[in-house]
Amino acid sequence: MERHMTTPFPVFPDISISTDRLVLRPFEDADGPALIEMMNDEQVVAWTAVPHPYTARDAEDWVRHLAPRERTEGRGIVLAVTEFLTQRLVGIVHLQNTNWRTLATEVGYVVAPWARGEGYATEAVLAAAQWLFRDQRFERLELRTAADNTASQQVAQKIGCISEGVLRNAWIARTQTEDGGWADIRTDLIVWSLLPEDLDGVADQLADAGYASFTDWN
């Protein structure tokens, strides 16, 4: 009987990425309490599909199972974003829906409420993009932002993304009701893309504007 050798599906390496202010690394059990606090923030609930309320069991499942499987099953990679000096959890960068044939993937990101306004999302996503293009030789990074999520759109613009169009009525966001609950609402998605050549000069421009620069990965 003829036997066929199968090629294992590709996966991203188990890495950490460092910038002047941040370390992007795999999640650890110790991240659980900060993850719960971040995921229960109103802005995170409104613009993402995370469970609400976000419980200790949700955090444990994410850290131990869901996040690692993104990498080991070839779908992408999840990185916890932490402050270099304090090790405090700043947010998440998530590469997902990876297409290994076209060398394209989609990035999502979340920032803790205490860390907003410091340029951390821009710094973290830019570092991930540089690693993706230079080390992994990818050709396309895609972002999708809800039409009213201006903060997320600003991150896309700062790292040099190009707006490609609108997916009408393509996402379900959440809005808070008068009684303190949450209701689903449909919204458009703006599609952005970043190609390797789009990064030319972006890091220098951000450095001039006071953002920390990408430095190393391992």
From TrEMBL:
Record's keyword terms, sorted: Acyltransferase, Transferase
InterPro entries, A to Z: Acyl_CoA_acyltransferase, GNAT_dom, Ribosomal_N-acetyltransferase
Keyword Acyltransferase in record: yes
Residue ranges annotated for the N-acetyltransferase domain, each copy included: 22-179
GO molecular function, one term: acyltransferase activity
Entry-linked Pfam families: Acetyltransf_3
Enzyme Commission (EC) number: 2.3.-.-
UniProt name for this protein: GNAT family N-acetyltransferase
Biological source species: Streptomyces mauvecolor
Organism phylogeny: Bacteria, Bacillati, Actinomycetota, Actinomycetes, Kitasatosporales
